[in-house]
Structure formats: C-alpha cells, structure tokens
Amino acid sequence: MAQVTRTENGYLCRRDGSLMYVVYESEKTMDNKLRVSIAYKCPVCGFRVETETLEMTRGRDSYTLTRTVRRLPA
Fold first, then answer.
1. Hey, which residues does 4 pair with through a beta bridge?
2. 33-41 vs 48-58, strand pairing mode
C-alpha cells in the first residue's frame, strides 16, 4: 500500500485524503550532531512521511554530511 497519493496540487494523506504540507525540522544533539528532516505532514490527523534526512557530524578537523532520501510516488 502506498504511503501517499500524488495529485497535481501535492500529496494526499492516506488516512483521510487531506492535502499534506512540507515540514522542516532541525535538532542538535549533545554529541556534535545536527539533524535536519524534511517531511510531508497532514494538518488534520498528523500523519507524516519523512522524505529526506540530512545529518552533519563534526569531527576534530572535518565535517561529515550524510543525506538520506526516500522516494515518494511520482
């Protein structure tokens, strides 16, 4: 079963059919990590589908950036 349904206006929630919107969230952790997540969220029921995650880790002399992308139906 697909997580969401794509329309010409955006993605529809699989639970109630409402149009979902994009949410950007960021968080810092105590172990020198920064995490940014991009997701689609339903304003009615709160259902969310995470589409992309960026994680940056700071080392002694460098930074490491990890990007994870989840494909949604086209």
1. 13
2. antiparallel
Per-residue pLDDT of the chain (74 residues; tens, 9 = 90+): 457 888 888 899 988 989 999 999 999 988 889 999 999 999 999 999 999 999 999 888 999 999 999 887 76
> How many helices (H) and strands (E) are present in the chain, helices listed first?
0, 6
Residues 37/41/45/46 CA torsion (nearest 10 deg): 20
- As beta bridge partners, residue 56 has 34, 65
20 to each of 48, 65, 72, how far by Cα in Å?
Answer: 8, 28, 13
Q: Give the pLDDT of residue 1.
A: 44
> What residues does each domain of the chain span?
4-69
